[in-house]
Amino acid sequence: MEIKHLREQKAVDSFIELLKEGKYKKATVKLGELRGMPEDFLKLYEYLAWESPLSKVKIRVKPVKAKIQCLSCDWKGDPEILKNGVRCPRCKGDVKILSGNEFSVEL
Ligand SMILES: [Zn+2]
Question: Hey, where are the domains in the chain?
Fold first, then answer.
């Protein structure tokens, strides 16, 4: 079972709702390297893991590396990561993001 959401808060809420059902023994959170939100989520996750009846659920965070394809030179691989985005490390061109934006929970 996999749930994907674009909006983080919604994802967190759905995640908690599902865990409250108590049917799940473990959850894997896939988190893309380019996602800017992990802090809040991780706080919540620690709370769930240590302070609540949900603490029996084993939660694992799996980071997903960023991969890009350059729109100019067609290079594929790790991007050059800037403060406000990513670009091609070879020609500094615009890129298509192949991975790194993931945020999903698998139960
Ligand atoms: Zn390039």
Answer: 2-106
